[in-house]
Amino acid sequence: MADPSSYRPKPGEIPDSPGVYRFRDEHRRVIYVGKAKSLRQRLANYFQDLAGLHPRTRSMVTTAASVEWTVVSTEVEALQLEYSWIKEYDPRFNVKYRDDKSYPYLAVTMNEEFPRVQVMRGHKKKGVRYFGPYTHAWAIRDTVDLLLRVFPVRTCSAGVFKNAARTGRPCLLGYIDKCSAPCVDRISAEDHRALAEEFSDFMAGRTGTYLRRLERRMTEAAEEMEYERAARLRDDIGALKKAMEKSAVVLADATDADLIAVAEDELEAAVQIFHVRGGRVRGQRGWVTDKVEEITTGALVEHALQQLYGEETGDAVPREVLVPALPDPVEPVQQWLTERRGSGVSLRIPQRGDKRALMETVERNAQQALVLHKTKRASDLTTRSRALEEITDALELDSAPLRIECYDISHLQGDDVVASMVVFEDGLARKSEYRRFQIKGFAGQDDVRSMHEVITRRFRRYLAEKERTGEWTDGEDPGAEGPSGGLAEPPGNTLTEDDGRPRRFAYPPQLVVVDGGAPQVAAARRALDELGIDDIAVCGLAKRLEEVWLPGETDPVVLPRTSEGLYLLQRVRDEAHRFAITYQRAKRAKRFRAGPLDDVPGLGETRKQALIKHFGSVKRLRSATIDQIREVPGIGRKTAETIVAALERAAPAAPAVNTATGEILDDTDEIMDDTEEPGQATGSPGEPVTTGAPDERRGQER
């Protein structure tokens, strides 16, 4: 018996969304399949105190050695996928899932002269077509009731059938046209069997052809003015569509296809494959791979196809292979797949409809797999230790950098220039010590000067804290302006943090990482040298080639793509970039919401936005003449004069300067709000790797 805590996933790793989960034993056999509206809440129920679990549930979780899950869009998809996997894996702990019975199936007894539609349990019989399994027998009966008006197949037992044949009177269903009444020869055995075949084809997913045929017959009946027949066909079509409850997991026309999705970042890629056979998801597989070279999504897809179908024992190639991007060139791959299958294969990107919806489900699973992989990789103690050791060796440090600080500069075309400082201790983010800065030493865009200023300000505070005997309380900010214009004096005997560490900027890092190449690294090293600090190492991580730059070196240090040390540096750098760009956007939004244009009487939001769009920024608007402002649609001379006057009154003041030292005061440096945590804006809690808008706009917004 296994201890469930040995394989219990952390709550943050489990998505709070609908899905299907599988418990496996130590031999990787699936022993239980279940579905949930919220995977996180449902799986948490299995890992409570064993004494509080049902004996069968306790036996299952102690037999299992791992648990995995698949994310879907809706509960209906989870239901369909659960049925498919129960049928495929036949898990031992699912046998008595309902009322100590096996799962019910919808069965069509094609082995009888007059096939019958019924609910069946237990062992499967030869010559009977089965659909399911289902959780509830009443769900089967509701579906059959809808379909009988279109496919009036026999549903009665053998006794009822024989009694009706003896008396010459059909049962009630025969009178209300929900049975074709073969018992009284209203329909021949051959025609009734053909009706049962149509019913089976519809249940197997081949629905599109039949619906189109009904719609064509309805149109023809209407054209021939047989309106009653057209109305009945219309109602039949409605009943069929209602029975076909739409789900991306079940595709029409018994589709055979493999859907491949890829989720990737700079270093790794997760591949997920859904195997669809007969219109239903029959299997799923996936893996996470290191990107050992610069590679496109199309090339990743090509490698995935080779791994799937290349071996003699590999998967059979279906008629359709749906992918997120095509290999370049696509023709050789297409021909290779055709040869492997022995007939034509459609390799394409789904654009719309059910296949596009199912592809989105596969993509969500790929993203979840990548996030889960990274979360496990980042939180594993052994992996973090190896990463710190690799950084120590690569940078030739005296000891492992247990505290790493990373800095990034962000701006939008030179406006609202800000910087971020993120802290990682023992390889994990220490969110409470994040800091953010406004660049005030100069105007305009200069990442090198900005980096020099930020490093200078941060470590000037470190030196000031180091010389003091007292520490700062939570309500005070070191470096704030004092009564005489200089730095405020410390309050004396104040408390440190509960863990004994100095507060605020007093705790130094062993390694400073800057987002950039040789120029930014040189600026950071120069700032530390000017302050007389020589016991803190500096490096930079250039994003394009992921090269590590050291001060004074002409060539970068190139870590292997599979290096845990490079992975840690990348996470630190990306988190600094995310935190900086989040602050820059918030600052810009605040400036737009409360700016000098707000004081202009009669100037509404629409015309303010038109002014900013026309000039690009308030700075450029401030330097514009009255005639130039009048060129903006909706702005007259009087309004333009009022705008100029308001901007002159709101001209920015010069930065405060310490009259004794000539240094610019940094009293507007900001400490991260307690309610703002990394991952909320462009990432996710516990996973600081940035994706999406910040990287896409990196050319304009740093």
UniProtKB/TrEMBL annotation:
The keyword Transcription regulation does not apply. Interacts with UvrB in an incision complex. Residues 16-95 form the GIY-YIG domain. Its main location: cytoplasm. Belongs to the UvrC family. Residues 468-502, 663-702 are annotated as: Disordered. CDD domains: GIY-YIG_UvrC_Cho. The lineage of its organism: Bacteria, Bacillati, Actinomycetota, Actinomycetes, Kitasatosporales. Residues 664-677 have a biased composition (Acidic residues). The UvrABC repair system catalyzes the recognition and processing of DNA lesions. UvrC both incises the 5' and 3' sides of the lesion. The N-terminal half is responsible for the 3' incision and the C-terminal half is responsible for the 5' incision. Residues 208-243 form the UVR domain. Residues 259-528 form the UvrC family homology region profile domain. Transmembrane segments: none annotated. The keyword Isomerase does not apply. It is found in: Cytoplasm. Keywords: Cytoplasm, DNA damage, DNA excision, DNA repair, Excision nuclease, Hydrolase, SOS response. It comes from Streptomyces atrovirens. GO terms for molecular function: hydrolase activity. This is UvrABC system protein C. PANTHER family: UVRABC SYSTEM PROTEIN C, UVRC/OXIDOREDUCTASE.
